[in-house]
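Dear colleague,

As promised, here are the two records you asked about, laid out in our usual form so they can be pasted straight into your sheet.

NAME FIELD: protein one
SEQUENCE, THEN STRUCTURE:
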Amino acid sequence: MNAVLLGLFIYVALQVVLGLVVARGIRDEDDYLLAGRRLGYGLATLSCFATWFGAETCVGAAGAVYQRGLSGTCADPFGYGGCLLLMGLVFAAPLWRRRLTTLADLFRQRYSPGVERLATLLMVPTSVIWAAAQVRAFAQVLDTAAHLGLLKAVSLATAVAIFYTGFGGMRADVLTDFIQGVVIVLGLVVLWVAVFPSGTELQAAWQAIDPTRLELFGGYRHGFELLEAWAIPICGSVVAQELVARVLATRSLRVAQCSALLGGGLYIAVGLIPVWFGLVGTQWFPELQQAEQVLPLMAQRHLPTLLYILFAGALVSAILSTVDSTLLAAAALTAHNLILPIRPGLTERSKVRLSRAGVVVFGLVAWGLALGAGSILELVQNASAFGSAGIFALVVLGLFTRLGGAASAYAALVAGLGVWLWGRFIAQWSCAYLAALGAAFGAYALVAWWSWLMRPHRTGVASSWPGTRPDSCGATLSQAPCNLAGEVNQGTREQA
């Protein structure tokens, strides 16, 4: 075992031990999935940053910029950083006020249990595909350090991810996120200083860059392709369970908003470092066969063994901080929104065991996807786009308008997914996600309007808004929008 692999083993082992220690304090589902709803500014901010700062930011974004210049980096760090900022500015407050456990709970409150289940079935694959991207990146780090080969590296990475995530839940997740966030920043800063110890080297590298590689909005045939590149990370990820869970786990509304904003700013600032290395990487490695190896190879070339171990630990931190969140999100949605409604008598201990079993199952699915994937960035983009057009429409229209009910929600989910699948894999549209967003919002509005036209207009029935219906507070939404103010009657499961 070489020194780098030994260092990685010790680092990961310490993370696992911390997870096991924290797991001893888990008493119920709220502790396991939302860390008891007690996160403060520090833990919440670094958890938002570290969860989003995954393999696609370090390895994937550097590889994309290496191949296409700055035009390959709309998604990272700007798109996903913008997603965190949008959450803090727009969505954090109304989501936090509802006291949800998962995002799918919103769809049960606002629409129906059937919409909740369908939305869950669309959200779970997103988390699993994202987990597969992190597993594949972890495998690349192991392969670079120990030359294990893809199968062995992916299998070992999956085993570590499952074991690491299964025990600690959200409480261990946010504590390790804090450590991993610090290590990520230190590792990238150390690499920057090693490659560019003075302004002379930095200036020389800048002057050697081909000007065509500096076009941020170049490489797109038309404006819709550019909008597509920005819409996928922003609209597709702002409604991800991984991010929503961190907002819901905070101790106050102000913490929820500020932690997302601070995490987004930190994400963009630190995310520019891998972008820079991808931009100048052609000067050291002009003909790489695997572009996503540019960042690990840069570190291997410029860092001594001890500092390379720190950098490899930073990469592993970026990966683990995301993979545990994705597997936990998939397990939470499945256990809380699909299984618990048909098994309402489960004890709190059984609920936690059920979520842990979900981590194992989805970890194995991620292993299979990681083996067959083409690239990390491709996995992440598919994860952000899969089914999220309809989810985004339901969240926006459900939180901020009185339009529509269950029928509108079903139409939006089916239309969004169907149009994206057709456009992405059959018709090969360059703007499949934009088309899916348009289809989801259009289908929602059309069905809401049709439902309003078909309903009898009797005295005492609210008809000033298409698709209005009585809400859980006993009044029509057009008369008393109490659920928009955050005073929501919780379902029986939340009260229990």
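NAME FIELD: protein two
SEQUENCE, THEN STRUCTURE:
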Amino acid sequence: MALPRIEGIDPELILKVHLSAPIQEETWRTAGFKVLAQEPGGILVLFSDDTELKAFRQRLGEYQKGVQGDAKNPAYNQLFAAIDDVRSLSASDRIGARLRADGKSSAADFDARENFTIDIELWDAPTQLDRQVRVQKIVEHVEKAGGEILSRYIGSTGLIVLRARMRGSVLRTLIELPAVACVDLPPIPDLGERDPPVVTVDDVSAPAPAVDAPLIGIVDSGSTDHPLIVPSLVDSIGVPEKLGTADVWGHGTKVAGIATFGDIRECIARGIFESPVRIISAKVVNDEGRFDDTDTIPDQMERAIRLLHQRGCRIVNIALGDAHRIPYDGGRVSPWAATLDTLARELDIVIIISAGNSSAGQRAPWGEEPEQITRTYPDYLVIPENRIVDPATAAIALTVGSLAHANGLPTDGSGGAELRAVTSLNLPTPVTRSGPGANDSIKPDLVDFGGTVLFDGMTQRIVSGDQYASAGMLTLRPDYLDGLLTSSTGTSMAAPRIAYKAALLLRAMPVASANMIRTLLALSANAPAEALQCLQKLGPDGQRACLGYGVPDIARALDSEERRVIFIADRQELATDQFALYRVPLPKEFQSTKGKRHIRVSLAFDPPVRHTRLEYLGLRLNYHLIRGMQPDAIFEYFRHRTKEEAPFEKLPGAAKCPLGPSRDLRGTSTLQRSTMTMHQNVDRYGDDYYLAVFAERRWAGEEIAHQRFAVAVELEHEAEVNIHQPLRVHLRA
């Protein structure tokens, strides 16, 4: 089993092990192995400098003797019983995803005469000296064979990367080396230059929005007289007044730019910065980005939001968080968050909050060394240290997490092998925070693009849109005399995208309640497939904690199609401890046409809240989707019964539609969205389903007799079938 010696390279053994059950790392260590990597599906990559595997063979021999004496299991049973398969890492295993996508899956696929520019990732070594020695031996091997090393990065926590140029004949030998973890084409930049594009006022036009366009209030660091935003900026206020209105700190202008225009790149491409919304700026932090020393934050927030509401704002964006970045630990909700919820309920407004960005330095969730982010992403996203921060725990306000808009690498190739992408399009931004919220409610509610970060090995820093425009979301530059555009990264850039989308809904439905706006945002949202795949190993709870209900699609929310329809009920009220029933008609074409189809339910309500209670919501709403039953029978199952009445039998299991997330998982959230997917004929359940909505009193007093809410139901069939027309005929009958 000893490996052949390759000139200049010490023999090592790298094994790929498939496990049926987890094995502690210490068990591998005592057997003579070091764990190099973990992969999905119970796969470990192990290293041993003992190519004869003496310690491992000794343990295997003991195990193969079977049960000895009074023992219940053979020696080392925990180790060997969990191993399904062991094999050496092959050359094919070392070929990366981009090369595989290019049709290269084995050494023979590389044309010996073709030139390749590749990134070579090496397995880690015990010490920094060992890492340097390992790199030098690979360098000598490549250069001796006629290749060229373009750049190299030797990290201190496991990341070792070289960028090289070589012929296919050299690459064929390289992937045979045990020290090589992966060989792949360098990541291709997928958006933007290192610096923001140069745009002048002469290049674009910026017409004023309509006089009745929806108003978004931006509670932040103030505003500037930026020429592209001035046409949309209706008013600027300071709370307190002594703060003034000027955006000296520079954050508010960036947020307002995205809230005003949505996608800045699209505006550049069209050559026109035309906004469908109007903006009012409320400055609540001083010129150093700190809150006022004399006012409490709840009082300051209440005054600012009431002033915005008096001026006509029904959407308020707050991309500010506690600078201490103390993650929510499951206790009581803060007075700040409770104030926002109370105002959202009282004023019937949509408040949008950023989930918060990860801490840096010693408190960074990926580890103290910046390089560790390349190794621990995305696992650290859901650890307690990376939970949402105040005021993102607010229950009625919409909390927004962030997705990467690209891998963030600049197209000019600057940075070499030392500049590493952490993620790619549609994956969670590496600095976004995760839920759950109070009482395990679903938080964040939604996600949208907020940019990404890169690891710069040259400077040993994590860099963002502040350093590389390609890594951030393009927006308006506060010091506009030095350039109109800049970029930035974080949930502060994702939240105003949701505010912009909420405003588009309000423009189309000007009398809609805040609950209906929230309902439709969630109804139209979907989590990107790439993000779900990336977070798969974290399970459904981890996916939900990072993505919430996903990214809203306003076109889906506003328009029905032949194969997709939406029913809505706005400004509904339900007596406490009672339930309401809504008929959901299913046309025959939806029930019986072959193909995948779904029923999706979305509900939003705004209960009283109290931050002094662990049970934060004074009321809860929830729902069942019932099939195969008539209304009278459903009422009989769910109606309140007196003590003298005999208990009624439980609702048949088949009658409850299997919606996901389940009733228990969504039950503590004020915004609930769940889906049932079907593949087979369901006409046996009849033409009408019924949505039963329940109001459950918690601590709310008798003075609160009703709870208002909005609800929407979507039917969609993947086949080209017209369900819209038969529903119109059915409902008019």
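A couple of things worth noting about protein two: The chain has four domains: 13-88, 92-184, 215-547, 560-732. Residues 1-9 have pLDDT under 50 and may be disordered.

Best,
R.
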